[in-house]
Amino acid sequence: MSAHAVYPPAGQASRWRALAILCVGQLMVILDGTVVNVALPAVQESLGFSPAGLGWVVNAYLIPFGGLLLLAGRFGDLLGRKRVFVTGLAVFTAASLLCGLAPDAGTLLVARFVQGAGGAVTSSVTLAMAVTLFTEPVERAKAIGVYSFVQSAGGTLGLLLGGVLTQALSWHWIFFVNVPIGAAAVLAARRGLRPERGTGRGRSTDVPGAGLITAALMLAVYTVVSVSDHGLGSAHTLGCGLGALVLLAAFGVRQARAADPLLPPRMFRFRNVSGALATHALLVAGMFGFQFLVVLYLRKVLGFDEVRTGLGVLPVSLLIGAMSLFLAPRLVARSGSRSVLLAALLLIAGGLGLLGLVSADGAYLTDVFPATVLLGVGFGLAMPALAGLAMSGATPRDSGLASGMFNTVQQVGASLGLAVLSTLAASHTGALPGGGAARADALTDGYRLAFRVGACFVLAAAVVAAAVLREPPRTGEGAPAAPAAAARRAAADR
């Protein structure tokens, strides 16, 4: 058994309880990435944010979240994942209380930054812990399906929850609701997850490398999320982007020379790890823009309120849940992760393509709902298959790092894709004349362009997956082999 197994008490029920604890923590983190979106007007009115400053309620969370995932995942390998998970969850819960109590804009932004840091620490090790809980291939496939549902559906559930809480109570409750749930999850994690020893006691933690990659990722995410304020071709954007690339290059040099690097170059020699990360980045770049842009279409063009908007995207979450929890594990066991992933990517591209046909005088049932079906089914099938492929190439000692890489790629890819798609939509709309009905036409034209570009991102993900990914070795009942065996096979195929 790996030195990094979570070691729950014996018995199948206890393993699933441990997985439930992990998923509660992950769900809280994912929800907070989007729950605030529909509450932004209420936050602005209450705390006096300027229009330009309001976006930083979201950005202050995204920057530390995207920047700290990789570092936190490595610390999970070195110090023990249970310790890292519990610490991150406690920080996230405390910061949520501070967010809800914030008396002014500055306090809220600081609390959101701390909340994003706690969310990164929590999220960085969750996938690795979920995988090591289950040794049987079929059970592991089911566990990855549960994790993928939480990871995929949390964003759209956040839109619904944010609208309901803001309308029924106040914007403060989108943060207060985390406090009792987070406190209970911390206590449950301390009891339900057995202690584990990290592999890195007495080893170097590569402090220079950690500083370089954290600074590079934070600067990259900052560059992306500030594009809307400064413009894609501005000196600010180009300068920050160049700075991020320089830091990333310096990190690469450091990793090639360090005796005990933070991100061992061997991780990229496994084609399934590299291919899954590239596929994941392109997928989320195209797909996660949907959550932002379809909300704008429903609100600004079709005139939906907060709750109706949340209900409008709810089918995506429901279908992701059904696919991830029930159908995806069976299809993966029967047809293999790679085949399921390729079919799912084509469904997602089709859904985004349908959204690329929406009209200014359209209706939800004809213009949006069919696309939500394709997106929900496709994403619900894609994420379990993709997560399994990504983790199949990681050895047990590096599974925490692979988990951190997978989540880092998701966060940075989603931020980059959202910035590109929203900038394209806004620029295209701004170039068109009109007010009143003509304004709705201009907005819709911008959204259509963004959805089509998002579909191209997903098609590119399908091309990468088809060219690079290989089906892991299969054992027992036709299910994928354990990560260690798959890693040995991948090493032989390099």
UniProtKB/TrEMBL annotation:
<protein>
    <submittedName>
        <fullName>DHA2 family efflux MFS transporter permease subunit</fullName>
    </submittedName>
</protein>
<dbReference type="InterPro" id="IPR011701">
    <property type="entry name" value="MFS"/>
</dbReference>
<feature type="transmembrane region" description="Helical">
    <location>
        <begin position="273"/>
        <end position="298"/>
    </location>
</feature>
<feature type="transmembrane region" description="Helical">
    <location>
        <begin position="146"/>
        <end position="165"/>
    </location>
</feature>
<feature type="transmembrane region" description="Helical">
    <location>
        <begin position="340"/>
        <end position="359"/>
    </location>
</feature>
<feature type="region of interest" description="Disordered">
    <location>
        <begin position="473"/>
        <end position="494"/>
    </location>
</feature>
<dbReference type="InterPro" id="IPR036259">
    <property type="entry name" value="MFS_trans_sf"/>
</dbReference>
<feature type="transmembrane region" description="Helical">
    <location>
        <begin position="109"/>
        <end position="134"/>
    </location>
</feature>
<feature type="transmembrane region" description="Helical">
    <location>
        <begin position="18"/>
        <end position="40"/>
    </location>
</feature>
<keyword id="KW-1003">Cell membrane</keyword>
<dbReference type="InterPro" id="IPR020846">
    <property type="entry name" value="MFS_dom"/>
</dbReference>
<feature type="domain" description="Major facilitator superfamily (MFS) profile">
    <location>
        <begin position="18"/>
        <end position="473"/>
    </location>
</feature>
<feature type="transmembrane region" description="Helical">
    <location>
        <begin position="449"/>
        <end position="469"/>
    </location>
</feature>
<feature type="compositionally biased region" description="Low complexity">
    <location>
        <begin position="479"/>
        <end position="494"/>
    </location>
</feature>
<feature type="transmembrane region" description="Helical">
    <location>
        <begin position="310"/>
        <end position="328"/>
    </location>
</feature>
<feature type="transmembrane region" description="Helical">
    <location>
        <begin position="210"/>
        <end position="228"/>
    </location>
</feature>
<keyword id="KW-0813">Transport</keyword>
<feature type="transmembrane region" description="Helical">
    <location>
        <begin position="171"/>
        <end position="189"/>
    </location>
</feature>
<dbReference type="Pfam" id="PF07690">
    <property type="entry name" value="MFS_1"/>
</dbReference>
<feature type="transmembrane region" description="Helical">
    <location>
        <begin position="84"/>
        <end position="103"/>
    </location>
</feature>
<keyword id="KW-1133">Transmembrane helix</keyword>
<keyword id="KW-0812">Transmembrane</keyword>
<feature type="transmembrane region" description="Helical">
    <location>
        <begin position="371"/>
        <end position="391"/>
    </location>
</feature>
<feature type="transmembrane region" description="Helical">
    <location>
        <begin position="52"/>
        <end position="72"/>
    </location>
</feature>
<feature type="transmembrane region" description="Helical">
    <location>
        <begin position="234"/>
        <end position="253"/>
    </location>
</feature>
<keyword id="KW-0472">Membrane</keyword>
<keyword id="KW-0046">Antibiotic resistance</keyword>
